Structures are given as structure tokens and as C-alpha cells.
Amino acid sequence: MLDFNAVVLPLDGNFETRLDAARRFWRELNGRPLGTLYGSLPQQTKLRHVLNLRAFDGRLAQAPYRRLAAELLSREPIAPRDWRDHHLRHKVRAILRRADRLVAGGYRDLLIYPQSRRRNAVYETRL
Predict the structure, then answer these.
(1) Which residue intervals of the chain are DSSP H helices?
(2) pLDDT digits (tens, 9 = 90+) for 61-74
(3) Which residue in 7, 34, 15 sits closest to 112, CA to CA?
(4) Low-confidence ranges of the chain (pLDDT < 70)
């Protein structure tokens, strides 16, 4: 008797993710090592998201931007007279803009990384 198993994968925007899950499932069934997970976040991206959320939490605690910059991005305190033209001032503001987008729903993109909701929306409008 022939033992036959199959996996049906829709050819949609998440095909690569589904294909990797099927590959890992097959490897597990056959006692092989799973290998690397498709779509795992790079370490630098993880660290950037951690920084974004730490800055967001600091702002919720009503910490001034200068203190956020000193605590999160600098090894030494930033003098008040230097803050107006300091390069970290703009960096903190950019970090907080990214954090706002992440908290406002952008975190959902992490669930389907490396695809994004925007790319899937473009794909679905073509069908």
C-alpha cells in the first residue's frame, strides 16, 4: 500500500511563509533539524524596535526628549545649551515617529514579516 501525504498551499501573498512552514513540518516529521525560520527578524531590526518602544515608554512617563536622547542614545549627558542643535534631537524625534506608527498598528506587520500589509494590499487589488 502506498502512503501518500500532500500539502495544499494557496498561491497568495503569504505563499513563501506557508511554503516554509510546510518545509519545516516535513523536516520535523522526518526527524531532521528544522533549519532557519523564514521571515525571522534580523537582529538589528529587533534592536531598533526595542529602542522605539523604550522611547515611547519614556515619552509616556513624560521624560523630556533631551533625557530620552541621553539615556537611550548617548553615553554622556547632553547639556541644555547644546540640545537645540544636537544631532540626537532629530534622531529622537524620528524614533518617536516610528514608535507612534508601531503602536498605532504597525506592530501587525511583524506578524507577517517579511511581507507587509501594504504590499499585500497592492497584490490583492490586482486580482
Answers:
(1) 15-29, 43-60, 65-73, 80-83, 87-103, 117-126
(2) 999 999 999 999 98
(3) 15
(4) 1-2, 115-127
